[in-house]
Amino acid sequence: MSVFAVERGEQDNERIEMISLSETIASSLALNIATNTSYLRAGAALFGSNETISRQTFGRFIDELRVNAGYSGAEGIGWAPMIRPAQLPEFEEALVQSNAATTSVYPRLDERSRDRLVPIKYLQPNTARNRRAIGFDMYSEPVRREAIQEATRRVEPTASGRVVLVQEGGGDEPGFLTYMPVFANNNYRDVKGYVYSPFNARDFLRASLETEELQRDGMGIYLYDTSVAEENLLARIAPQTETGEYYTREIEIANHPFVLVVESTRGSALSYLSLLTLFFGLAVASLLMLVARLMTKQAMEDEKTLNWLHEQNSIRNSLTRELNHRVKNTLANVLSIIALTRRRADNLDEFADSLDGRIRALSATHDLLTQSDWNTTPVEAVVDAELAPYAQTSENMIDRSGPDVELAPNDALSLGMALHELATNAAKYGALSKQTGRVRITWELIEEGLARLDWVETGGPPVSDTRERGFGTDLIEKIVAHELRNPVDLVFDPTGVRCSLLVPVRNRGAFQLRAERARKGEGRLKGKTPQT
């Protein structure tokens, strides 16, 4: 009975380890894909507002996203327009002019009978491996074509099934792709093309495992497309010992089903504790009491571990929902900025310059939030980030002061956009356009849960009474005021612009609790059992 109880406990422990590992890997895979799909959504929003997608436009998009250092396990990010057969000569001429490695689309049109093509035009980073894919018509291959059609139907990033990437150059290493359709002028019937990312399945799985100590005690890890079958195997990390004991978990990656399998390393042989009990338990009666105590303690620890796993799963689900919410909010802000800037711009250069500055301001605040792991961000850091270009070139033209006030992520983004618009206006027409001009920025807590930031310009050119209302005024008084849930007092006084913003100061408890849970989770993962 003691041997049976020990073995049962060991099996339960092994199963708990397998469940924990599968949950952690699934969350890491989902996070990597969420990062990639956010890049694709941003590209679709930008390219949809451009008449043509040139190499310079695409390269600038890649540079602004700052993804050259890492693509979350992807081979890169590419652009493939949708063209008709009659447009094929024009497309191939564009390949010749751009000095592409391939100057013709393949496979050739006479090998198929279709009314459209989706050839690859750009793929970054510009490596020898990625250059092999230029000119490949993805619509000619059934698996890719099905994913393209599904992405168009859903109007959101969609993953393909198992394919061999063109980059493999004749190899047989499997992978998959994610597609995001780009529509002209928000017309969901007029498809311009697709922003996409190719993934080598083995590299994608290993990139997701690099974030933590995920492979425990030599367990095996398998990733399948749709169902568990040899022909559907995408990637495999071999176990230390093949035992045939598996835990299977179905996951969805970019609206496509995948299956994650974890293989146990525990074989059929008895554990050391079981052998000890078998040889000496019958002779020593007192050992039975010790074993009973050990088993009781083991059962209590197993229960605590299971409770901890449920808690961690709940936290991961909450963080995933939070990530999706923030990505959608950010893309909504970008789309609003694009739409408003386009209505106010008189020509393409003015539109591009205005949009560039506002996207950079949004990116600068995003960098601050990323550095703080999307916890609270100091007001002082937001002010310094948005005024950095002017502080470096001015001589004591900017004066800012205030207490230590921490803002929630969304409120910090809204404040950053407002400061960017005020600074841009001051540099063009106000205090920062003259050496005698001064800008003073102060903030204070006026009551619990609410702070006020004041922007005051002096010494600049007189403010005209007949000035026209611009986009910056609309953005501050409408979008920023709506996001901050408080009115904005913006005054164009003849002596200089003044602006007062009321910013909510959320309770830091929610962010501290999440950080504390993360630290506690790391400690439990390393020790394999929860700490009390």
Automatic annotation (TrEMBL):
It is found in: Membrane. It holds the Pfam family HWE_HK. Its main location: membrane. InterPro entries: CHASE_dom, CHASE_sf, HATPase_C_sf, Sig_transdc_His_kinase_HWE. Residues 49-227 form the CHASE domain. It catalyses: ATP + protein L-histidine = ADP + protein N-phospho-L-histidine. Keywords: ATP-binding, Kinase, Membrane, Nucleotide-binding, Phosphoprotein, Transferase, Transmembrane, Transmembrane helix. The chain crosses the membrane at residues 269-291. GO terms for biological process: signal transduction. GO terms for molecular function: ATP binding; protein histidine kinase activity. Its EC number is 2.7.13.3. One of its GO terms (cellular component) is membrane. It is an enzyme of class 2 (transferase). This is histidine kinase. It comes from Parapontixanthobacter aurantiacus.
